[in-house]
Each structure stands twice: as C-alpha cells, then as structure tokens.
Amino acid sequence: MNDYGREASRRARNEKAKRAREQFLMLVLLLALVPTILCIILFTKQSKLQKDMAELKQELKKYELQANSNGTGNGNQGGVGIANATPFPTPESNNTPQPTNGTIPADGTSHKTGGDLSQEGSVVPATDVTPGTDLGNVTKPSPTPTPTPTPTVTPEPTMALDPETGEPLPWADKKVYITFDDGPSKNTDELLDLLNQYNAKATFFVIGHEGEESKRLYKRIVDEGHAIGMHSYSHDYEKIYKSVEDFEKDFTKISNLLYDSIGYVPDLYRFPGGSSNSRCKALTIQPFISFLLERDLRYFDWNVENGDATGKSYTVEELAQNLLDGVEKNRVSVVLCHDTNAKGKTLESMKIVLPTLVEKGAQILPITEDTPMIRHVKPAGED
Fold first, then answer.
1. Residue 383 belongs to a domain
2. Is residue 348 in a domain?
C-alpha cells in the first residue's frame, strides 16, 4: 500500500473514532438528562400533592371546627349563635328604617364612649350627654326565639413559650379579643388576610350593608373562624334608641340580614356607641339591655381602645401603640377598633400590632362563651 492509501485509511479510522465519541457523548448526555427531567416532573407533582394535602387538611380542620361549634357541622362558625334559627319577623310599622342603597359608607361611622373607661371596664358617666327618652313604661315586645347554646370553642394560643429557652413569653398569660365595629368595608378582605397570616382570630360587630359583596364578607368572616356579632342595622342613634319598638325594628333587620348571609343569627351584640353611649344614660339603656337578655343575647363593650374613633388624627404607629399600651395593663383585653372604608390606618396598624402580640406570646382570640364579660353598664340588679 502506498503512502496515499495509508493516509486515506488513517483518516477513515479517525473519522470513525470521532463519530463513535460523539455518539457516546450524546448517549451520556441523554442518560444524564432523562433522570433530571424525571426528577423535575416528580418534584413538581410532589409540590402539587403537598399543596393539595395542605388544602384538604385546612378544609378538614374547618369542618371539624363547624362540628365542634354546633354539634351538627351546619356551618355555624365564628363564635356562638342561634343555629338554624327562624328569621325574626319584621314588625309592621310606617316608621320602619329603610335599607341603605347597597353601598358601604365612604366616611365610616362615629362612636362616642360617653365617659372615661377604667381598666376593669367600668365607666364614669359623661356630664354632657343628651338625655334619652324615658322608656321605663314602654310595653316590651314578646320574646323572640331562644338561642340554642353551642359548645365553647377556644382556639390554641398563638404562642406561649420561647422556642429557644422554653420559658413563658412576657404576655403568655394575656388574652386579647380584638373587635372591629361597623364593617364590612373595602378593607375587610385585607384585614382577614392579615389575621390569617398570624393565625389570629378576631370578632366583627357588623352593621347592615346590603348587596352580594357584603354578604360574601359576612360569610367569609365566619367561614374563617372569626366571631361575628350584631352592631345594629343602621347605626343611627336617633332611630335605634327612640323606643324599644324602634330598637326591635332595627334589630330584626340586622338579624334577618345575617341569617340570609351566614345561615344563623349570632347571639353577640354591641350597642352603637357602647352601653354607655351618648344617647342613653345608664337609666334609659336598661330597657334595651332587657330586650337583649330576654332573647338570650350577650352584649359586649370594651376596656381597650386604639383611638381610631376619638376624632384625633393618630398616625398608624400611634394607633398601634395605643392598643399595645392598653393590652399591657390588662390580663384580659377586649379591644375596640373599626372596620370602615375610612379606617385604612387601622388596617395598617394591625401590621404592627399582630406580630408584636405574637412575638410577646399573647393569645389573640375571638369572643366565645367563656370570654369574660366587659360591660360599661351592667343589667339592672346585677352587681
């Protein structure tokens, strides 16, 4: 074989070897890629399954809470109430308050405390209140259906022990019941998201907002384990406290609205302005207190305020500090806040309040049957 033939043969062998190497490398690359792709697919499926499992656990927990709270699993969450109650009949009268136009007020509603609150929840009557109508001789309406008692549901504390030392945190013995009056509003969804982020439960004393969006918010409140209570339909002092009959008309409207929205009538009530409101002195509030007690409803006031309804222009930080200062003084705090379109600062202040309470170990709870009563004006004859 001449030199030309030998060179051609050598080049052919080299070319063949090169192709073999390329094929080998391609095979190695494929063998490496296939497991990687399979791992990615399996990881994606595992993440989806974990997410589905978490959602199922959350749903199961929700249904367990429903079953525990009313014994039947009929959806009565968020505190105690009148489960499967018949809506209250609306009294016939030409003076029945008319519904709102289906929108949420843009400027919120104001509250007046009627006096200075003490740490224990007592009140020093205000000296400049407008005397209310004497209702002592008014014939009281016949009692409405008796609420069905439900078991006490007390959520687990948010945190009680230092995870590093195992020692109780500074506020581990404090129970904090944050309440929001006047909702729902455009801020309610974000407020509920924030409470959920910190595993905190609150109490919403709502007023009468018509429309599907408001009904959705009423239902979301109870579906997520918060307590819900009535705060009147109209929040109009002059109409509500004009007489027991007018109080009943307003009460009937808010109870029927909530029954249509959440399937039951709550047994919690907060008087507009509190039981020490500026329209009623201690004497004239008693017929309205009797109206609630005859129907086995409980009314709550507060012993801590964040100050968002005082008329002062507090900053977000000041609102948060007002609340935290009040909680520091009490072992049991029922905190007054507001949920209206105009209370964006209150929403923002919760981004300071909630992590601080959790960090200090306070229990952030909804009002339930075992919540200590905080009342500015007690029922007649009660010490």
1. no
2. yes
